[in-house]
Structures are given as C-alpha cells and as structure tokens.
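Report of the visiting student (M.T.), summer placement. My assignment was to run the structure pipeline on a short list of targets and document each run. The first record concerns NADP-dependent glyceraldehyde-3-phosphate dehydrogenase.
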Amino acid sequence: MAGTCAFSEIIEGDVYKYYSEGEWKVSSSGKTVSIVNPTTRKTQFKVQACNQEEVNKIVESAKAAQKSWAKTPLWKRAELLHKAAAVLKEHKKPIAECLVKEIAKPAKDAVTEAVRSGDLVSYCAEEGVRILGEGKFLVSDSFPGNERTKYCLTSKIPLGVVLAIPPFNYPVNLAVSKIAPALIAGNSLVLKPPTQGAVAALHMVHCFHLAGFPKGLISCVTGKGSEIGDFLTMHPGVNCISFTGGDTGVAISKKAGMIPLQMELGGKDACIILEDADLDLAASNIVKGGFSYSGQRCTAVKVVLVMESVADELVKKVNETLAKLTVGPPEDDCDITPVVTESSANFIEGLVMDAKQKGATFCQEYKRQGNLIWPLLLDNVRPDMRIAWEEPFGPVLPVIRINSVEEGIRHCNASNFGLQGCVFTRDINKAILISDAMETGTVQINSAPARGPDHFPFQGLKDSGIGSQGVTNSINMMTKIKTTVINLPSPSYTMG
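After the run finished, the structure tokens were exported:
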C-alpha cells in the first residue's frame, strides 16, 4: 500500500493526492471524496475532490506536454512503456490490495488484473511500433482518368489530449487499455478514475511516474462527477474520449461534440444452448461466465436461452456447480464477494423481487447480507420480468426456456444491448449461422463471453457502445491520417 516507500509520496495524512505536471498534489478545494469498502461498508480511503480550475491546468499542461511527446521517437515511447509495464508488475501486490478493499475483487483476481495490465502495456508498445512505423504510398494513375503525376504519402499522427474514463470493475486494466495506446500514438493522457477503484488507479499512475514519463504527459484527476464530470467531457482542450461504463456514456456522447469517441456501455449477453450441446461444458461456462467477480462484468452471461428439451438437465448441472462456489470476503479469495455498493445490491434485489412476484422458479433461496448476495439461478423466467432485459451486474442469472433457435435469436436481438453473446452446439454450421444472426459485437462459440485476450477486437452494437477496442483498434482510433501529396511536373512511371 501507500505506506511502502515506493508509494509514500502519493498520500498525505489519510488522503490520496491527485497527479498533475509530474507531481502529486493536494487540491485547493480542501474537499475529499470517500471510498467505501464494499465488505465492511465503512470508509476505506479518501481522495482529492479536484475543482474545475485544477482541471483547466491539467488539460493545459497535457496539451503542452503532448507537443514535445509527439516528437519523441517511437522506439523511445515504446521503451518507456516497457519500463512502466515492468514497474507495474513489480508492484502488483499493493495494487491488488487496493482492488480487494475498494471493489471487493477476490485477492487472486486482483493480482491477475495487475499482471495482465502490465502485459497489455508491453504488447501495446510492440504493436504501436509496428502500426505507427508504417504508412501508405499511393499513385494517382490507379484512379480512372488520371496519369501518374501525384504521389501520396499517408501516416498516422496523434489526436492530442485523450480523456480516459475506466469503470469500477477493472479500474487498472481498463485504464491501461486506454493509456498505453494513447501514449504510444503520441498523445497525452488525462485519467478520470472511478470513485470505487480510484486508489488502485492512483497506484498504477505512480508506476508510470516511476518509469520516467515527461511531466504533464499523464495526469490523474479525482473528484465528484457533479463538479468535474461534464466539465471534463465537454472541455475544449480534450481531443478524444475513451469511456467504459454504463448509461453515463450516452450522455457523454451527446455532449462531447465533434471529437472521436470510444465507448463500451454494458451488455445483456445471451447464452443460447442447443439440444446437441455438451451440457457439462455449457454448465461450467455459464457459472464461470455468469458468476465470476459476482457477475460484475460487462461480458458476464446475463441470460440463458436454453432449448426446452434439455433445460431440466442443464439447470440441474448449473445448480450442482453453483453449490460449490464459496461466498464471503475478497480477502479469503471467495468466488462470490460483495457487490460494489449498497445501491447496486438494492437494484439487484429489486430485479429478484420482481421475478419472484411474477412467478420465476428460485433454484436457491435468495440470501443477502449487506452488499453480499449469494448466487442465485432463476428458472422459468418470462419476457415480462425485468430480469429478462435489465442488466443486474450481480450474481443473479435468469434462465428462459425456448422452443426454437429462432425464438432465442429473437430474444437476443430484441435487447437494446448488443455487446457479446455465446452459443453452445456441436454443429459448427449451426453455430456460424446463429452467430451471423445475433446482433452483438462478438459471439463466442462453446465458451462464455470474454473481453480478452486484450489484443482481440472488442466492440458493442446498439446501446452497448461506439467504436472498437483491442490494442490495434485503440491505437488506430487514437490517431488520424495525415496525407502529403507530391505534385510532379510531368507523368512519371517507374522503369518506364
């Protein structure tokens, strides 16, 4: 934690500082924001409540730093990113401790997030050198009616200042998935971490600081959304926004104006189970996909659409696997840990009570203690229940029995979300046809939905997002094409 020598400068008293112009600072507002431990439901950390004046200074310094950073050789940018990745992995334990206390992430998963984040940064450095080190050469006579009198050279140049806003559930990994592409492409980066997860993000930013990046190039501003949220996303000095989260992204997209947006806004990932599916495989993936990190993942299985003829057997197998999950505090590495806030737990409970009132079959007794909700499978869910459509972001999973593949596809496509989906069948031809019919950004065949590996394209349709993520796509999104045309005095043909 910050008490260790490496992180001692990021905290003053019991309040964590914000990061600007290469220094850790205390906000002039004199105010702080409390971070509540989901397990104890008591204040665990405090961070600075920055004001709009400080945001202005951060963006101003980011614009200045970006100008010189864009002139830094690609190999040097990559070298610094590799160094940051090494520092990040070296300090995985204190970062993981923050994740356990801030967002109740199981201890082993918290360490994995830190290591995975370092790997992502290194991969991004390598991929960036390849992508940005190449351009295109075009000649004019490839288009009808032209002679070879023009040579066209294209290259990728940075956008400027990138604003990165990650979500609470992966505040480190989904932060570096925005930071690393932005930096290798020659941009500067302003990070606005989520409140729950802010301290882990501050530790991560300090790893970049220790790696020796130029002052002002990376900033991390904490505070209340009501004070600096809209101010940041509408700031004229911001040239690109990369956001992962919920409905807030829709509002951001409407206010941001004419700048590139990269957004992932949640999902209601459907899992379609055919009659010929390997039910053991399906059941294990349903539990893994629907209940890991207590279902608080955008790519979690959110609804199971199973053919009636195999539904009883599938439900039995899922329940047998669910019974083996451990429930308790994240420090004990339990499978099911408290959801992030009391309001989240209340929302989940509202969905459960609605399903109960409308006649869903409870495969387990509904049990809740504070923010901790025991895993629950709801069978015989109907389309008139809220849980059939709304994203619980918790350890509650509905099962809808279907009589045809078409019925399952119709339900999937009727959702306003379209992030991922999955289908279980032994017939690859059926799988491909169903995949083509599902209105989602990604379809997994015989596996639960997943964002990774981190270099795979990751995108949503409909209300699930704008643009595509993944290392290559993010680098391309955070650059623009610059064209230089050489006009020749007469047609020129090589070896003519």
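The longest strand covers residues 150-158. The chain has two domains: 11-265+465-481, 270-445. I thank the supervising group for their guidance throughout the placement.
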